[in-house]
Amino acid sequence: MSAPVPFGLLDAQTALRSGAWRAEALAEWCLERARATASLHGFVELAVEPTLAAARAAQARWQAWQTVPASAPPTVLNGIPLAHKDLFYRPGRAPGCGSRVPVPALRDCEASVLVRLRLAGALDLGPLNLSEFAYGPTGHNRLLGTARNPYNPDHVCGGSSSGSALAVASGAAYASLGTDSGGSIRTPASWCNLTGLKPTRGAISLAGVMPLSMHMDTVGLLARQAIDLAALFALLTGADPSDPRTANAVPWDGEAFASARARPIRLGVIEEWFYDDLSPAVAAGLDAARSLWSGPLQARVVAVRVKALDQLMRRARTLLLAEAWHTHRPLLERHDSLYDPRVLQRLLVGATIESGEVQDALAALSVSQAGFVEQAFADADVLLLPCTPDVAPRVDASGPEATADMLRRIDGITRCLRPINYLGLPALSVPAGFDTQGLPFGMQLVGRPGSEALLLALGERWQAATDWHRRAAPGLGLN
């Protein structure tokens, strides 16, 4: 193809719609990117023939519409190459979960989110690498190899959705589904210069997804820009009979998204706790972001205070650890020797938590959310918070031989992220800068329950005023 390679998901849709690219050629280009970056350990396997067959079917739908333009066009995802974390059930294939531990097979099970994507004509290039059972913030994996950062392969991608970030950042996929139980979308988004959405609890179905923590889990989305996530989220949100947690999910409101693009906005900053222990580069990047928001972007930046933050953090940690242990207890009883030792250690910590602490964390869920929302959003529409406190660490320094100082840093990676899962709030990570080594980092915008349209509109506004997200990894070749 002589036309430039499309940068984002909607750019790809425009190219397919206009005929500048054919679906099969775009699929081939993405598959070649996956092959070219195989040494970075992004894909578990490539579904080459199914992908190309689906691409031919998608192209036929485009051609049928181009022949009769008055007919309804194919969906925005028709023929778009995607790839997803190996935590989702696919027809005839249980998720590998990055582990030697065998996951229960479910006959004819396909994750509800993958069904929606398939019916919309999206391509699925294959399952992606991850931290074992989605339980690690760096993305290390002893079985599959640790996914390496496309901006510097000596560094990690971040976990647990490490392969998802690598696939999108390296150009092999235009978006990816992962999961976020305590930062597993936002961490790799921050470290791989991507845009990542952790939705409101219950906004997207978890049916057919290997669980970790019943109350903390969410299906999350990764893409290169916020406008692409809006198209993806619009398709995936809404009630699913297979997952009762989605009963109150609100369908996508396109009018709210459009109106939010230019509305006056109040950005709240919680200095206490959230802004502690940031690296100089991240601290400077967040200062610059606040200046841009309060200047050219004409937002009103306000200080926000929230009571009992330490208690909130403890409850988030308690619930994640305890529910992860509960989820894995049946597998541990039969296969404990097959787990990665570091993952096993994290799971066993959950077994030591007193039942009273767990009941307290569960009982306080709705009260904590209501109290936080009342305090944090009394004078603010959205919160502007750090995402990760530093850029991605080196693979060797953060592996099994990590020093005590590095282990402390690893423990702090998700300190600004886990509480948002506990509260069930939506959060959007957007690129916010690079350090002196050329490693990226992001910031997160956090909103009230159900405010994804506002967050994504603000993400689009931010990316219209900055070019961080367009600074592709070396050799990516996107325009």
Q: Which helices and strands appear, and what pairs or packs with what?
A:
Layout: H1 9-18, H2 23-36, H3 48-67, E1 81-85, H4 112-119, E2 123-128, E3 148-149, E4 152-156, H5 162-169, E5 175-179, H6 186-191, E6 195-198, E7 219-223, H7 226-236, H8 254-260, E8 266-269, H9 280-294, E9 300-303, H10 309-335, H11 341-351, H12 355-363, H13 365-376, E10 382-386, H14 404-412, H15 418-423, E11 427-434, E12 440-446, H16 452-465
Parallel strand pairs: 1-2, 8-9, 8-10
Antiparallel strand pairs: 3-4, 5-7, 6-7, 6-11, 10-12, 11-12
Note the main sheet.
8 strands, mixed
The named CATH superfamily: Amidase signature (AS) domain
Output the structural class. alpha/beta
Helical residues, percent: 25-40%
Order of helices and strands: HHHEHEEEHEHEEHHEHEHHHHEHHEEH
Number of H/I helices: 16
User: Radius of gyration in whole Å, from Cα?
Assistant: 21 Å
As residue ranges, the low-confidence spans are none
| Sequence of strands across the biggest β-sheet | 5-7-6-11-12-10-8-9
* Mean pLDDT figure: 96
Number of domains: 1
What general form does the structure show? globular
The CATH topology turns out to be: Amidase signature (AS) enzymes
Descriptive report:
The protein is α/β, with parallel strands linked by helices. The chain has a single domain, classed as Amidase signature (AS) enzymes (Alpha-Beta Complex). The protein has 16 helices and twelve strands. It has an eight-stranded mixed sheet with strand order 5-7-6-11-12-10-8-9, sandwiched between helices. The protein has a two-stranded parallel ribbon with strand order 1-2. It is globular. The model has no long low-confidence stretch (mean pLDDT 96).
